[in-house]
Design brief:
By secondary structure, the protein is mainly alpha-helical. The protein contains 14 helices and 4 strands.
């Protein structure tokens, strides 16, 4: 009886997902719909997997536990991916040094807690401010002089800046990993699922930052300036928008989110090192592409999808597959829908 119920509920959930996707335009006309659409689709996807496990008579508690872990990891990927997608949406640049900004945020939070004795909330703000400053400096030094240069030159510069920051980090901070002080030790159990306090903090802060970003981009004057520059830089400049200041603001905000991700991941995996930004930075870029690079909700979807997939693969197959799944998903999405899950194919006149 239980397998039949599981497959029945799976069918109902799939129908709901299809209907939500079909009527997306009507459902997202209002702000509440825009905010609720992405989380609702994600919840339905998780429910569909849960009902599939019920139908197969698998261990649902274990699956849900791994999903919770995946959501916390995916939240970190989403924060970093938002920086990628914002910068790309404005200047069509893949900032490969973004992973190193994430690393600098982790170290800024580490010194704020250990040397300055700040509370975690103040350390988080300090890490975000330090990452924002680093992001603006990178933009001013490395990218602004190449604003009108060929894209290949800018891409090579981004890779070079990434390697430079890694090596400077090893010189300044040392190559030996440092242990981030334990901040949260609470453990809760809901329905047989263990929820440690640090992962709850990650999800809540990530959710609040994403809401704040969505409000900033859609309902503030600097946010409207960013959207105008992303659509047509020359027209925005003719309308009196300071394009250079807008680009710097975009780098600052994207870097703030990466800095927040750095200190948040450090409270769960309390070991930081100068090369810690390499793989998360690449995976966050993959998440941005999967969701639709240049689209803010797409970065969130891609990050959560990647985090959950990575954790489930580790739990059910092997930890050696955790990195392969990210790049495997990238290949699949580029073959099936190159514009990403939420992206649209745009025709260019040549």
């Amino acid at each position: 009886m239980l397998p039949v119920l599981g497959f029945t509920l799976l069918g109902v959930t799939i129908v709901l997902i299809v209907l939500l996707f079909k009527f997306k335009v009507q459902l997202t006309l209002h702000t509440a719909g825009q905010i609720a659409y992405t989380p609702l689709m994600f919840i339905l996807a998780v429910l569909a997997l849960n009902y599939l496990l019920v139908g197969l008579e698998a261990d649902r508690i274990y699956f849900l536990q791994q999903t919770v872990y995946g959501i916390s990891l995916g939240s970190v990927y989403a924060l970093i991916a938002l920086g990628y997608t914002m910068v790309y949406g404005i200047v069509r640049l893949i900032n490969f040094a973004h992973g190193e900004i994430y690393m600098l945020g982790a170290y800024a939070g580490f010194f704020a807690v250990t040397s300055m004795g700040l509370h975690f909330v103040l350390a988080l703000i300090f890490a975000m401010a330090a990452a924002a400053l680093a992001g603006v400096l990178v933009e001013r030094i490395a990218y602004k002089p190449l604003r009108n240069a060929p894209r290949l030159a800018v891409l090579i510069t981004a890779i070079g800046m990434s390697l430079l920051l890694q090596n400077v980090g090893q010189k300044v901070f040392g190559s030996i990993p440092r242990s981030f002080p334990r901040q949260f030790d609470g453990l809760y159990q809901i329905g047989g699922i263990n929820l440690d306090q640090s992962r709850i903090i990650i999800f809540l802060i990530t959710f609040l930052l994403m809401l704040a970003l969505q409000y900033f981009v859609n309902y503030t004057k600097p946010g409207r300036a960013m959207r105008a520059v992303s659509q047509d830089r020359d027209a925005a400049q003719l309308m009196g928008i300071n394009v250079e200041r807008t680009i710097s603001s975009t780098f600052a905000i994207g870097s703030m989110l990466a800095g927040a991700a750095g200190i948040l991941v450090a409270i769960v995996f309390p070991q930081i090192r100068p090369t810690m930004g390499l793989m998360p930075g690449l995976k966050a870029f993959v998440a941005a592409v999967i969701g639709g690079i240049g689209i803010i909700p797409g970065a969130v979807i891609g990050g959560l999808l990647l985090g959950v997939s990575e954790n489930l693969v580790t739990a059910y197959l092997s930890s050696s597959w955790r990195d392969a799944i990210a790049f495997g998903m990238l290949i699949v999405i580029l073959l099936v829908k190159p514009s990403g899950i939420l992206g649209r194919n745009v025709r260019e006149k040549v």
